[in-house]
Specification:
With 277 residues, this protein is α/β, with parallel strands linked by helices. 38% of the residues lie in helices and 22% in strands.
């Protein structure tokens, strides 16, 4: 009997990951023979677990919180976007036995916003909330879309400013504190904090969204997040959660591993349906 190629997502926690469902749907749709599972890895044992996985014939890994920096250090080769982000969410075994590291978060976000939602990014004033690993992965692809400017707001202003400096060669980007958001309006606000997971909301002033402004939460759930509810109350033109980003970044990983790009729309519908059951 032919053995299926092995893939997995490594995280801690990882129990509620939708990645196995997503990649199983991609495999069925494209006729690829593979097996994908979620594995909880103990905090100090990422490199050991990843080495064992690839030594035993594993083909590729997705990496989620809190191991994206560990995966960056683990990779033998890095894509340009992973190197700039300083974080890796996709590892792929190469023909020479080396492990290639990439970051598909940013391209997943851009594809969802631009292709699925039809929101314009070029020439727009964009506010990004948070300066952690999630935001680190999206800034490069976001800036390559040619926004008028991107402002990164964070509770610790030095983190926002340091992150902005890392990406300033790609476009007009700056960092500030939430207290610094006293004037100006934005056409798009992206919530890259984990506040929604705690049922919380970053401290945002009223009227910070422009009249035709959009709001995007990188988190997702069965119900609208607190950030999405806030944006709707600010009469946002359009609001979305990050489920599409999750599926699109997974599709990019799948393409890196298998050389074929799946159709994301039916898989987004499948995952959305599973959230409400």
């Amino acid at each position: 009997m032919e053995t299926k190629d092995q893939y997995a997502v490594y995280g801690n926690p990882v129990k509620h990951s939708k990645s196995p469902q997503i990649h199983a749907a991609f495999a069925e749709q494209t006729g690829q023979q593979l097996h994908y599972r979620a594995r909880k890895i103990e905090l100090e044992h990422f490199a050991e677990a990843a080495t064992k996985f690839f030594n035993h014939g594993g083909k590729g890994l997705n990496i989620t919180v809190p191991f994206k920096l560990d995966a960056f250090e683990f990779a033998d080769q890095l894509s340009g976007r992973a190197r700039r982000a300083g974080a890796v969410n996709t590892l792929a075994l190469q023909e020479d036995g080396g492990v290639y590291g990439d970051n598909t978060d940013g391209i997943g976000l851009v594809r969802d916003i631009h292709s699925n939602l039809g929101w314009e990014l070029s020439g727009r004033r964009i506010l990004v909330l948070g300066a952690g690993g999630a935001v680190r992965g999206i800034l490069g692809p976001l800036l390559k879309q040619g926004p008028a400017h991107v402002l990164v707001a964070n509770r610790t202003v030095s983190k926002a400013q340091s992150l902005a400096k890392n990406f300033e060669s790609l476009g007009h980007v700056a960092g500030c504190s939430y207290e610094g958001l006293t004037s100006g309006q934005f056409d798009l606000i992206i919530n890259g904090t984990s506040a929604s997971m705690r049922g919380d909301l970053p401290p945002l002033p009223h009227h910070i969204l422009s009249n035709d402004g959009c709001a995007y939460d990188m988190m997702y759930g069965a119900e609208p997040t607190p950030f999405m509810r806030w944006a709707a109350g600010e009469t946002a033109w359009a609001v979305s959660d990050g489920l599409g980003m999750l599926v699109e970044q997974a599709a990019e990983s799948f393409c890196i591993w298998r050389g074929v790009r799946p159709d994301t729309k039916p898989v987004m519908d499948l995952v959305r349906q599973s959230l409400s059951t």
